[in-house]
Amino acid sequence: MKGSITLRKLLEFIKEYKKVFLIPLILMVVLTLIIFVLSSLSPESDFKYLG
């Protein structure tokens, strides 16, 4: 019984962690897209930092 309770707590922790981690991840993706669009729209676009 003790193992199943621990597993349930672990699954709940993973769900909460995903919920907390998803918002910064989406913000990072949106910021990256905005920077990419702005740099491609600017006439002096230099893509050296993209590798």
UniProtKB/TrEMBL annotation:
TM annotation in the entry: 20-41
Keywords of the record: Membrane, Transmembrane, Transmembrane helix
InterPro entries reported in the protein's UniProt record: DUF5989
A Pfam family annotated for this UniProt entry: DUF5989
UniProt-recorded name of the protein: Uncharacterized protein
Biological source species: marine metagenome
